[in-house]
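Chain entry —
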Amino acid sequence: MAGRLDPENTQAMRQSLHHLVAKAPWSDEILLDEMRNHVLPAMQKQGPVVAWIVDDTGFPKKGKHSVGVTRQYCGQVGKQDNCRVAVSLSVATWSSSLPIAYRLYLPKEWAENAERREKTEVPEEVEFQTKPDIALDQIRAAVAAEVARGVVLADAAYGTNTEFRDGLTELGLPYVVGVQSSMTVWESGKQPLPAKPRGKIGRPPRLLQRSTGHQPVSVKQVAMSLPSMAFKEITWREGTDRKLRSCFAAVRVRAAHRDYEKAEPHAEEWLLIEWPRGEAEPTKYWMSTLPVDTTCKALIKIAKHRWIIERDYLELKQELGLGHFEGRNWRGFHHHATLCVAAYGFLVAERNRFSPSARVGHLGFVVPGPAPDFRPRGSLGPHRAA
């Protein structure tokens, strides 16, 4: 990049670019807002926004001095490993998606360590937040910015969190979120017992009750109790080499989490269950506040639309260097990611200049090469053997 920008002063330009990423005091939020305002209209020319997708992505990292690095689950390697994790919010149409918010998850051992914070220049206002809390803040900011709304999609790491789901409902946003098989619910037609009768003295009881014979059940128990005819084989989209299909059932339930501390039961919502043929038990569960007249196929289509951001992160990491940041500080990490996302936004906008059918094949874009005598930093001279 430095060689293309200033072939005569490549080293000085390289230092300037390094400063731009690692130290310069520009705002990630403002740049991402400007990028979104430029790219989203181009996406909407091909179709409306249908989803807001919450996700996190991990970056394997050795050592312990880079901001946010600790041993935690890393999706890139599929296990616990030394890494850092960032939470993102993306907007998606049926054909495109775009990250619009991105923030490092700062583990508690980092957030509460003053020496580590100082060395990596973590801003004073940054406190420990869970990943669902970070995601909710990103969603609230998108609502405040009047971003075109969609159904919120998230995996079970977020969907199992009751405060996260309640926060979405308070914002007026419908959701389809993954949940764990152990989540407890009241089956269709059931709910907690009403409050105790009023006594002769004191305030009237108002909290809901349970009894030994009246308890909620896990979503797995709900699924296993359904008759086989409740599961239908449904195709939700065309894959690269075959139609994607599986067996699903959808029933109405009420979440049961701590409802004995409430005066009113949770509202009914959808429980979507996937039980592929040949499996001994269901493999995935989702809870959804989409309307009661939503068809099972529509539930499945939107629940499965989370796949679209896998392409985003694949391209961001493999083509645009999202995981290549080598610095240690907070600002540099976010500046690097913001510039990568802005570059990706440009590519998304360019793609949406063409109809989906026209995107197959070469579109005729030409990438200019560097100056003829440019040699990358650290490369061997002409007199050295390759």
About this structure: Residues 330-351 form the longest helix (22 residues).
